[in-house]
Amino acid sequence: MDRTSEETAGSEETPNARREPRLIDVAQIINDRKIGMFHVRLVTVSCLITVFDGFDMMLIGFTAPYMRDELAISTMQMGNIFSAGMFGAMIGAFLISNLGDRIGRRPTVVLCAYVFGALTFLTGFARSYETLMLMRFIDGVAIGGMLPLAWALNIEYVPDRFRSTVVTLVMIGYSIGSTVSGPVTVWLAPHFGWEAVFFFGGTATLICAALLHFELPESLRFLVSKNRPRSQIAGALKRIAPEISAGPNDRYIVGDETEAPKNFTVASLFEGWLRWLTPLLWLGYFISSLAIIFQSSWGPILLEDLSFDRNTAALASSLSSILGAGAGLSLMRFTDRIGPKAVAFYPVITIPVLLAIGFAPMPQIALLWMIILASTLIAGAHFGILSIIGVYYPTTIRANGSGWATTVAKTGSVIGPIIGAAILSSGMPLIHTFSLLAVCPAVLALCATGIAAIVKRNKKEQQQKPPAIGLAQQS
């Protein structure tokens, strides 16, 4: 093929300019590489920012008693403040994700980090109900848009066989942040006031945002899919594969996404095989979120009403969170190896455990450990569905796919406590509540099984098509 007419800037000819231009499949390069220090740094900084994402999201709940007393905020107003943050997260999940699919993952993640860091810090100066409502809403928008983009960026830099693994690792950061927000509040608020907790969280988040500004790369798949300047693509490629000696004269493709849509519309989430996949992802994520928020909201109260003391209830809830994260870590490699059918494992086990709690008489100590087991399995199942939310969408709409799924799931988080309140107020024996909760893992197991069947069928169809152009072939 004739040499392209593109020339590098400058009077002297570089080796890249003298070399024949190549057609480079960045998807193949990414999939053929082993996990290295570049991936470790990426996952580490992504996990770090999600620590403060989770910390900030849960912080308002732990500081609420202090704020209510000092600012004379009613219980109803406090509930509205909680809802403002959650509603903001619902809006941000699809608005910010859309921005990430337009201008890039890196600038959007960094922007969100700066915004929610600044707003967390400024919340310490709030002195009115209205101010808190506004700040929590805007803060929620930034927080809600952060996670789908973090998933997308990490998914797009690792081989297919590690995609669920990196999403799980990133979400471990969110769990850590959620877990430590309570102890940090107990440490700071009694001595320095509730404001100090927000000052601490905001400052730490802004420091982390500055680190992201210098360390976070842009997605290589995104750069190619959006036809960004070749010099920018070559620079990104050199960070993971310097031996390729990529240059601005080379041409780049994403070989495993040749039929991907170039621009996003909501209809893009239902094109082709996605018309079956997206509804099942949404339903599974929704029902899992409903279960997890029911457990976290009403779990300690249920334990107290079942004659366990408050310290035991709190300890059991904390232990379940830690064990749930461990269950998610245990599942991630199986999900990458055998596919989404692994996601059904924990829900299937959870069903008989919850039914046993609800209907089988047992000693108090056995009941406590069965509840801890059920809570652990519910959390592990949630990590499972999270790990595949953004995996199967093409690069050009991946952030939007994850964002819209998150928005749908947030509705489960909103109505979960409401449904719980209705059940607990219905007069039903408290212990039977657990058997009713078994509906959630049952639905999730069916969704995971359906997703596995759809993914398997799509892979067969893709294998029947001609293979994509290989790595660095001559054009």
TrEMBL record:
Entry keyword annotation includes Lyase: no
Cellular compartments per GO CC: plasma membrane
Any Pfam family matching the protein: MFS_1
Annotated membrane topology: Multi-pass membrane protein
Domain of life: Bacteria
Record localization: Membrane
Keyword Acetylation in annotation: no
Name the UniProt record assigns to this protein: MFS transporter
